[in-house]
Amino acid sequence: xxxxxxRLVRWRLVLGDAAGSLLDGRAGMTADDLAADSxxxxxxxxxxxxxxxxxxxxxxxxxxxxxxxxxxxSEVHRLFPKETIERIERDAIEKYQxxxxxxxPEVLARVEPNETLLRAVLLTKHLMNAEVLAMARELCAKxxxxxxxxxxxxxxxxxxxxxxxxxxxxxxxxxxxxKATIRANLGMYDRASRRLFIRTPLFVARTRKHLEKxxxxxxxxxxxxxxxxxIHAAVTAACLWGLPSMKTHLxxxxxxxxxxxxxxxxxxxxxxKVQLGGGTDIGKAVGYAQGLIENPRRTIVVLVTDxxxxxxQAVLVARVKALCDQGVIVLGLAALDAQANPSFDRxxxxxxxxxxxxxxxxxxxQLVSFLAEKVRA
Length: 377
Prior knowledge:
Pfam families: VWA_CoxE. InterPro entries: LolB, Uncharacterised_CoxE, VWF_A, vWFA_dom_sf. This is VWA domain-containing protein. The chain is α/β, with parallel strands linked by helices. The chain has 3 domains: about 5-135, no CATH class; about 165-205, no CATH class; about 215-375, 3-Layer(aba) Sandwich (Rossmann fold). It contains 15 helices and 8 strands. It has helices spanning about 5-15, 30-45, 70-80, 80-95, 100-105, 105-110, 115-125, 130-160, 180-185, 225-240, 265-275, 280-290, 315-325, 345-355, 365-375, and strands at about 190, 195, 215-220, 245-255, 255-260, 300-305, 330-335, 360. α7 crosses α8. The radius of gyration is 28 Å and the shape is flat.
């Protein structure tokens, strides 16, 4: 009986059929190794084909018949660790366009919700029937809830006013500064009784430093390339909503502008309303924002787009310059997601920067920090 060599098995799984006789007929591989090899081959040895691949009998117990997507996904979840599963699912959806991963109710019932699947739901929801759409909405809600819980901590840290530590003459128990009181009365410690006597208790005022109200207008390009940014923009706007220092607006746009401010507290509903694709008129979106502004010097316009303008670039640049000249802070983001890897029109973004806009790519946490810095300035 051949002895299993972990290194050779890993290379076999990486190379697939290209490994040839590397393992001398794959001797030493366990049944699960063979099943993992088959599951990887089902996806990665399809080349440019889009049709479901026939799974050849590789001795892993899966048989020679065509393997349905739900069965293949079950094998993937059984055989691989979580990080690998997410990578395989992402490749299946984004590289090989296997939409059944998010349009088949049997598959949706098995998958672990994650951001990759949420992006796929938004890209394929127009293909879903009512039953699948309801399941997809539940998946969307689970992912959004996790994203909001994570971002809410950054929002709380960045925006909540700090507690003033000024001394107070009002002697109320809940305002006692215990640590300062102990330090100030250490000379009153009685070694015999091992007690600290308090001669001078210290109290603090508990008023908060309130921030002056700002208006935040988030404009999000709903072109297909911006799907990751759309998710995080909706979550960020929801987390900002209700802050005492903020009045938040959320709008999505293609060639038209849709104001979703009345739904901003429900990012799942916002995301399910998004219609990805179509043309882009960034200038029109900026023009809409101009009509919302109440106090230019207390307004930040966050423009989330790839800057590939389908309408007049001159109009867009002129409107951004007009906002900046009025004192509005314009922040153009080519990406707003966990990776912040942008793909955008650099020439147009440079023109907008010269007009006075801040241009970059940020994670949601970085955006929150940027906004907090500006409103506290």
